[in-house]
Amino acid sequence: MYLIKKSVELVNRNMVMIVPFLLHFVIVGGVSFIAILGGSLWFFSPGATDDEFYVLDRLIGIVSVSYPLLKIVGVFILVLSLLIQAFVISGGIGMGKEVLKRGSANLSDFYIYGKKYFLKALLIEMMGVVASLLVMLPFFIYLLENISVLLAAGNLSIEFLAIFLVSGIAAAIAYFIAHFSMIPLIKGESGFWKAIRSSFCILLRGYKDAIFFLVVAIMAMTVAIIFSLVLFIIPIFGQVVAAITQFYFLGVLLMWSMMFYDKYKDRQEEFEV
Q1: Range of the domain at 248
Q2: How far apart (Å, rounded) are the C-alpha atoms in residues 185 and 192?
């Protein structure tokens, strides 16, 4: 509980910690919006009518003629999102490192650490995605082999739900371990593979704190989602407040992760000695 309270206190004193997440949302959301807007303008170009056959022909034409372009745009947005996310995570961890070291952080710290570590962070991110997909492979195989049976049954079997739940939890753990390894990489200035190994060992050693935080996080996210749904009734203002609430939670999660690392890093070093 101490780690959670301390994380909240540090974020409250350094609200600049939520700015990187805001930038990520604005940039990626802005690019996606422009892409969607461009596609909409293309579809509803001059000469369009309300005739249903025209609309159908238009859709078929766009899919057949411009499908490669749509794929390129989609891949571009995906790659851009991953690059920005890696930069944001690297810069955010760097800001958290400075908060713990000198009590405060600023956006110049975000830029310095983001620029220095984002390529390594991106590689770790991709490894996390690959590891998650590999862990989920049994579920995908089961789904392909039994898709006709599942569709005919009309409901989900206990076996399907069990395999999905187990593989999903394992994939989430693999992804979290990969993301957590960015902290020893940046804060601990460890090498690439050492950071991944350290991540696994520290999380295993502090599993009680990790499980406790997970329970609290799930409860907090549930409340935040309900709160966000209520706020979405209020145009613009509600969405802004909901987004800031989510960014605040991400800041607390980041600070908790860094203090969790500091707490169990020392135990790991003693163990290694």
Answers
A1: 15-42+54-265
A2: 6
